[in-house]
């Protein structure tokens, strides 16, 4: 009985989340390649990568539903289940936004000034690069919930700080692009509108990752 009670209390809420986090991180380099192919005029490869992202999004969503459906009610989690499910939801929205950004690109043939195209590619690379921080955060969080050591808790906080720092950099890049778009009076209205939505959706990738980090911070709070 003592062993059973111990298992009930010591189960990490993140033990089944790493697979989902890896699906999210998998989107990063594919997203970057897809956008590069788009602006290089390789629409065939772009469409293939867009569909690959769609498949990953479906797989990630299936993993999320499986985690939520098979979390036994008898497990006494060390965190509020609502916070854990909020973390999982925000992480899943990252993949949704990657997919949506590529679909926005597919709706229109963007002919952009070099500065705007360059800055958007920088934003995409910045966002795509740090999606890999999510599985690292999940692994460190899982280790902390297993050990309850302060040094492991600080390791999680280090990743959270990095995510927040990178999100602020992404915000700055977004603002730069918005300024360029608003200053360019030669852009067709359709291009202007779709590009604004595209930049917003790309920025949402970083926002949802930061939201997931905030939920992780709440889970490890003492």
Brief rundown of the structure:
Helix content is 82%, strand content 0%. By secondary structure, the chain is mostly helical.
Please tag this protein with its features.
222 residues; mainly alpha; Methane Monooxygenase Hydroxylase, Chain G, domain 1; 8 helices; 82% helix; elongated; disordered N terminus
Give a verbal description of the structure:
The chain starts with a helix and ends with a helix. It is mainly alpha-helical and 222 residues long. It is elongated. Helix 2 (18-39) runs antiparallel to helix 5 (114-129) and helix 5 (114-129) runs antiparallel to helix 7. It has a single domain (10-220), classed as Methane Monooxygenase Hydroxylase, Chain G, domain 1. The longest helix has 34 residues, at 150-183. The chain is built from eight helices and no strands.
Q: Taking Cα atoms only, what radius of gyration do you get, to the nearest Å?
A: 19 Å
The CATH architecture: Up-down Bundle
Q: What is the helix fraction of residues, given as a range?
A: over 70%
Low-confidence stretches: 1-10
CATH superfamily: Phosphate transport system protein phou homolog 2, domain 2
Main beta sheet strand tally, sense and closure: none
How many separate helices?
8
What is the number of independent domains? 1
Question: Which CATH class applies here?
Answer: Mainly Alpha
């Amino acid at each position: 009985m003592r062993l059973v009670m111990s298992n009930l209390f010591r189960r990490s809420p993140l033990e089944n989340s790493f697979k989902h986090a890896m699906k999210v991180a998998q989107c990063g380099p594919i997203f970057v390649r897809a956008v590069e192919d788009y602006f290089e005029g390789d629409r065939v490869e772009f469409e293939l990568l867009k569909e690959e992202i769609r498949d990953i999004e479906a797989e990630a969503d299936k993993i999320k539903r499986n985690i939520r459906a098979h979390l036994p009610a008898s497990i006494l989690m060390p965190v509020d289940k609502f916070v854990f499910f909020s973390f999982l939801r925000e992480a899943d929205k990252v993949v949704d936004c990657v997919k949506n950004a590529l679909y926005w690109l597919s709706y229109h043939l963007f002919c952009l000034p070099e500065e705007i195209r360059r800055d958007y590619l920088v934003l995409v690379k910045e966002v795509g690069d740090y999606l890999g921080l999510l599985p690292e955060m999940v692994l460190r969080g899982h280790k902390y919930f297993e050990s309850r050591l302060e040094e492991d808790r600080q390791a999680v906080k280090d990743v959270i700080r990095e995510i927040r720092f990178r999100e602020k950099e992404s915000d700055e890049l977004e603002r730069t692009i918005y300024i360029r778009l608003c200053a360019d009076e030669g852009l067709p209205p359709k291009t202007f509108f779709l590009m604004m939505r595209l930049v917003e959706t790309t920025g949402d990738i970083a926002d949802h990752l930061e939201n997931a980090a905030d939920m992780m911070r709440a889970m490890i709070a003492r």
